[in-house]
Amino acid sequence: MGLDDKIRNSAQETGGKAKEALGKATGDEEREAEGKADQSSANLKQAGENVKDAFR
């Protein structure tokens, strides 16, 4: 299950980067903020996965 979660987190981070870039390109501050939030969420989830892996 850990690998699936890592893949989902990576996909969420990539989507967040794309959303942030689109927001910057179009001047849409809300979309840019959503992209940053998605990236932060993915990074927190990834940190949790790393902690779980450390205890295995």
TrEMBL record:
Gene3D superfamilies: YjbJ. Residues 1-56 are annotated as: Disordered. Pfam families: CsbD. Residues 16-37 have a biased composition (Basic and acidic residues). It comes from the Bacteria. InterPro entries: CsbD, YjbJ_sf. Residues 5-56 form the CsbD-like domain. Belongs to the UPF0337 (CsbD) family. This is CsbD family protein.
